[in-house]
Amino acid sequence: MRTPRTVFNRSRHMDEKSIIDGLKKICICNSIQKKVILEQINNGVRTVDEISKRTGAGSGSCKGMHCIPKIREMLDESEKISS
Ligand code: FES
Prior knowledge:
Blueprint: H1 4-22, E1 25-27, E2 32-33, H2 34-42, H3 48-55, H4 68-82
Antiparallel strand pairs: 1-2
């Protein structure tokens, strides 16, 4: 049964989960968190190059080998949600 308390707890759990998710490092080389990339996407940035310029993601020692595919995936996911 859904009581106001269980709804509140579920909502709180989702908030905590999204906060923790946002702290994950997308760009390990430059220590850039997922929330930083999401902020750019939410501000309307739609290309990997632009996100890289604005955040520094992809400019580390691996030259984006690790993070660029993840950023591309996040952009694709954002496109799916908005269409
Ligand atoms: S993980 Fe982003 S440049 Fe290496």
